[in-house]
Design goal:
The complex is a heterodimer of chains A (339) and B (282).
Chain A lengths: L1 H4 L2 E12 L2 E12 L3 E5 L6 H8 L7 E6 L2 E2 L4 H7 E4 L11 H11 L4 H14 L15 H12 L6 E5 L7 H16 L3 E6 L2 H7 L2 E6 L2 E7 H8 L2 E7 L5 H12 L2 E4 L5 E6 L8 H14 L4 E7 L3 H9 L14 E5 L1
Parallel strand pairs in A: 3-8, 3-9, 6-7, 7-8
Antiparallel strand pairs in A: 1-2, 1-4, 4-5, 9-10, 11-13, 11-14, 12-13, 14-15
Helix pairs in contact in A: 4-5, 6-7, 10-11
Chain B lengths: L1 H10 L5 H9 L9 H18 L5 H23 L2 H20 L2 H10 L3 H6 L7 H28 L6 H19 L1 H9 L3 H17 L12 H9 L1 H13 L5 H28 L1
The chains are: A alpha/beta (339), B mainly alpha (282).
């Protein structure tokens, strides 16, 4: 009850789940305000999915406790189920059935009469741009379409809390943007969203608060701003024409940006991590200052790119160790500019 | 898959944020479905699956036909003088044996289904918990009925003439389907308990072969050694085969029917709760 009054959708204290010897979730404390998108960020195997499964009443915790809208997830599992929806990592719909059949089936299971279930299914398929594929079996859907039908199935009844477990893993950038739009539309109507992701930019785009999970524990929690200031604004990747100038360039960058500069294995490449200490300047401003300093010293820059802090960098900054499971999109330089 | 991906970029309509918002505004939720309604909905799912993958009816059509033909002509001459005479005795028994054998596919389909994400969605719904499993079994009851009709048709073509008439035959099928529904809870249990489809198949064979063969389906147990008679005479399959044989033959074998229903109740009472325990733990 108290949590409901304080406006929390989820409140967990010391949540633990063990699988044999492994402590998949090792004492997770979360407080998720209602009506927001809350990001849970972490590499593969960090315990994100296990946490979500416990909160969605699919797994029983081995320790600690959790409340969803004030209901205990173990003792009042049925109350919790009535208010949440889950979209898992893999399509949580029946691949042998068509889009319409899936939505009508779930509509019926949620208590709609046949006619109402059919209407709601048709409306959702329409809104999700799936009308044409409505009569096709889901196994013939593309990755982007599967995600859509999956999310559509989760909002047959507008849930108070929607779990999205890595909703964009494996999607192309276009489908990913569309999923983001859907998430924004859902949260705009007052639904709380708990989003797990491996991608910092996704959490950055959608979430207002972020918890970083590693090895079953929350290692950082806060607003996006707080998290970023602890990590830095990103990094500048440079390729010089002359490898002999690299040491000089590194020194200039260090002075101009007050940043850590690392030589790369490639003898002409350099990476400067943009610090927060330097100033309030944006990453782009810092980068242009850096380029100016190099140009005035007569150093030719062949290639230049500005990267957002990657998950690796977040982890390095927060834990001092690398992500133990490297993710393929972890260091993807944005806004490539040829200099 | 690859063709679907390429067509997507051309054909997939954009998500309409406005109509989505309009849909999300409705916050009222209908009352939860009753246990019966949820189970029937899952049964409907099973029927839809048959509609989309009709090949899965192979085991309830071709397999039973094969069973009738094989055993009628293999044993008929030796055991009863002629296949036509033997089939009068054999058909109700082979019907019981085949349908009970077919029940083991329930475990396999449960096992392959739980690997898929859709199971997580079902388990996160606020519905009567056993309805998912009951739904499987309702769909399977339909399959058992199809198998029974197929076998009876073949039997009648081969010369089987049930003295019980239509009423007796229907009563026999009803008893068989009800028993099989109850018996299938063993397979839902194994389907949830074992890790792979293969192990489910393996365990099912281990259970089903001795259970169905060590019965009075093929021959009268009086020729068997005493220790075997003790097993055979108390086997649920023997009781069921005698009951179905009696009903179709125009008798009213009340005690055999009662034994069959008693076993059926026992299966549900023992394996139902174990299944649900595994289902909730999964």
């Amino acid at each position: 009850m108290s949590t409901q009054m304080s406006g929390l959708a989820i409140e967990t204290a010391g949540l633990v789940k063990t699988f044999g010897e492994t402590r998949a979730v090792d004492g997770v404390d979360l407080s998720v305000p209602a009506g927001t998108v809350y990001g849970v960020l972490g590499p593969n195997g960090a315990g994100k999915t296990t946490t979500v499964k416990m909160l969605a009443t699919l797994l029983r915790p081995d320790g600690g406790e959790a409340h969803v809208f004030g209901h205990d997830i173990v003792r009042e599992a049925d109350e919790v189920r009535g208010r949440v929806s889950l979209t898992g990592q893999y399509a949580s719909v029946d691949e042998d059935l068509t889009g319409t059949e899936n939505l009508v089936l779930l509509g019926r299971l949620l208590g709609h009469h046949k006619k109402a279930a059919r209407e709601r299914a048709a409306q959702l398929l329409e809104a999700f741009g799936l009308s044409e594929a409505a009569a096709k079996q889901v196994k013939h859907y593309s990755g982007g379409m599967r995600r859509r039908i999956d999310i559509a199935a989760s909002i047959l009844n507008t849930p108070d809390l929607l779990f999205l477990d890595e909703p964009t893993t494996g999607l192309d950038p276009r489908s990913r943007n569309q999923v983001w739009e859907i998430v924004r539309a859902v949260v705009a109507q007052g639904t709380t969203v708990l989003l797990t992701t491996q991608y910092l930019d996704e959490a950055d785009q959608l979430a207002s608060r972020i918890a970083v999970i590693d090895r079953g524990r929350v290692i950082a929690e806060g607003t996006k701003g707080e998290l970023k200031s602890s990590v830095g604004a990103g990094s500048v990747h440079l390729r010089l024409r002359d490898p002999d100038q690299r040491d000089l360039a590194a020194e200039l960058l260090r002075r101009a940006l007050e940043a850590k500069v690392q030589p790369e294995p490639d003898p002409v490449a350099l990476t400067a991590r943009l610090g927060t200490a330097a100033s309030d300047d944006s990453a782009a401003e810092q980068a242009s200052r850096a380029l100016g300093a190099l140009a005035s010293a007569g150093i030719t820059v062949d290639n230049f790119s500005l990267g957002q802090p990657s998950l690796d960098e977040v982890f390095l900054a927060l834990t001092g160790h690398d992500t133990h499971d490297s993710s393929d999109r972890s260091d993807d330089p944005k806004d490539e500019v040829a200099a | 898959m690859s063709t679907a991906t390429t067509t997507e970029s051309k054909e997939l309509a954009p998500v309409s944020a406005e109509s989505l918002a309009a849909l999300l505004v409705t916050k009222e939720r209908p009352p939860r479905p009753s246990a019966w309604s949820a189970s029937m909905t899952f049964g409907w799912r099973a029927i839809l699956k048959i509609k989309h993958v009709p090949e899965q009816l192979f085991d309830v059509t071709a397999f039973p036909i094969m069973m009738v033909l094989m055993y009628t002509y293999l044993f008929g001459g030796a055991l009863a003088g002629s296949p036509e005479e033997y089939i009068q005795f054999l058909l109700p028994g082979i019907l019981v044996m085949s349908v009970v054998m077919i029940t083991m596919y329930t475990g396999v389909s449960v096992n392959t289904d739980i690997e898929k994400g859709v199971f997580d969605r079902f388990r996160s719904l606020p519905i009567w918990r056993p309805s998912t499993m009951v739904g499987y079994l309702l769909g399977d009851a339909l399959r058992y009925t199809i198998a029974s009709i197929v076998m009876l048709t073949v039997g009648i073509i081969l010369g089987y003439r049930p003295d019980g008439g239509v009423a007796g035959v229907l009563a026999g099928i009803a008893l068989l389907v009800a028993f099989s529904f109850a018996f299938s809870w063993i397979w839902t249990m194994f389907g949830l308990m074992l890790r792979t489809e293969k192990s489910v198949m393996g365990v099912s064979m281990m259970v089903i072969f001795p259970l169905t063969f060590l019965s009075n389906v093929f021959v009268d147990p009086t020729t068997m050694p005493g220790w075997l008679q003790a097993f055979v005479n108390n086997s649920p399959i023997t009781h069921l085969a005698s009951a179905v044989r009696g009903l179709m033959g125009g008798d009213w074998p009340a005690d055999e029917v009662a034994w069959s229903l008693g076993w059926a109740a026992l299966f549900v009472l023992v394996f139902g709760p174990v299944t649900m325990r595994l289902y909730n733990r999964k």
